[in-house]
Amino acid sequence: MYELTEEQKMLQQTVRQLAKEKVEPRAAEIDAKGEYPWDMFELLKENDLLSLPYPEELGGSGADLMSICIAIEELAKVCTSTSLILGVNKLGSTPILLAGNDEQLKKYIPPLARGEKQCAFGLTEPGAGSDAAAMTTRAVRKGDVYVINGQKCFITNGGIADIYTIFAKTDESAGVKGISAFIVEKDYPGFEVGKKESKMGIRGSQTTELIFTDMEVPAENLLGKEGEGFKIAMMTLDRTRPTIGAQAVGIAQGALDYAVAYAKERVQFGAPIARLQGIQFMIADMAMQIEAARQLVYYAANLVERAGREASAVSAMAKCFASDVAMRVTVDAVQILGGYGYMTDYPLERMMRDAKITQIYEGTNQIQRVVIARHLLG
Question: Which pairing describes strands 191-196 and 207-218: parallel, antiparallel, or unpaired?
Fold first, then answer.
C-alpha cells in the first residue's frame, strides 16, 4: 500500500473539497454544452493547481508525479473534462521539461506555471496514430528557421493552448529516427486551427485539427537535436500515462460512490437494493478493481520519479489496467441504477462516456499491451 505523505494528504483534501464544492455543480452543464470551461481553468489557476507539474526554480510548485496523480484523481471523480485541464498542460509541457535548454525553459515554463498560458501535445495525424513512423508532417531547415507543413488531429487543447509541442519529420528516410520535436506558438504565421471535433465524452475539453502551411519556426525552438523527437515523445508518455491511470481511477471511484449511495436509498421488494446479494457482489468487485488500479497507478508514479528500469512497462500497465477498470466499473454503476443510470439526469452515463477515452488516448490499450510484452520478451 502506498501511504501518502502529510503534504499529499493535505493536497488530496484540498482538491477533494474544491471538486465537491466548485467543480461538481458545473460538471453536467459542461458536458451538455460541450464548451471549454474557462471558469474551471480559472479555478485551478487561482488554487495554484496548474503550477503543480513545474519546478520551483521556474515558478512552479515542484510537485512530484504522485501528487499530480492525486489532484487529477480527485477532479476526475466529479468532472473528467476539468481534470484534463491539468493533465493536458502537463502532457504538452513535459517534452520541454525533458529536452528544453535553459533558454527554452526560462521562456516557456514560467507562464505555464502562472496559468498565463496553456500547452498542448501534437503527435497524432490522420494517417499516423499508433504508427508514428507514418507521420507526414515535414520540417525543412532553411537558414535560421524550420518550415513546417502538415496536419495533426485529435489534439486536446487545440485552439485553446498558446504553446504546442509539435513533432515533424526532418529526415524522411530514417523512420522514427527522422522525427524531431519543436516548440510552436499559436500566433506563428501558417499555424491554423482546423475542425473542432464533436465527441462522445470529455465534451468540455476542446479537441481539434492543427494545420501547418509553410509555418516558420525559429531554429532555436528545436527541442534537443534533430532526430530525437520520437525518443522525447516516448519519454513524455512514460511520464504522463500514470496521470491517465489516475484520471481513470477517479472516474471509477466517482461512479462507485454514486452507485453505493443510490443502492442504499433505492427501495425494491420492500428494502434498499443494497441488501440484495447480487448488488453487493457487484459493488465489492468494483471496489476491489478500483483499489488495485489505484495502487498500480501510485506504484507507477513512484517508479517513474525514481527513473526505475521498468518504469516504461509499469507506466503502460497502470494506464491500461486503470482505464479498463474505469470502463467496467462505470458500466456496472449504470446497471445498478437501472433505467435511471441511462438518463442524463444522473451523472453515471456521462462517467461511462468519459471513461472510454482513457482506453484510447496517450496510446490505445492495445499499444500498452505491446509495450508491456516487449519489455517482458526483450
Answer: antiparallel
C-alpha cell at 4: 501518502
- Within 10 angstroms of residue 254's Cβ, the number of other Cβ atoms is 29
Cell numbers 531554429 correspond to 219
Beta carbons of 245 and 318 less than 8 angstroms apart: yes
Per-residue model confidence as pLDDT tens digits over 138-150: 999 999 999 999 9
CA distance 18 to 63: 18
Cα–Cα distance between 245 and 324 in angstroms, integer? 10
Under a CB-based contact definition with an 8 Å cutoff, are residues 178 and 240 in contact? no
The pLDDT of residue 1 is above 70:
no
DSSP 78: T
Please list the active-site residues.
362
pLDDT band with cut points at 50, 70 and 90 for residue 336: very high
Q: How many CB atoms lie within 10 A of CB 143?
A: 8
CA 331 from centroid of its chain's CA atoms: 21
Burial class (CB in 10 A: 0-12, 13-18, 19+), 284: exposed
Q: What is the pTM of this model?
A: 0.97
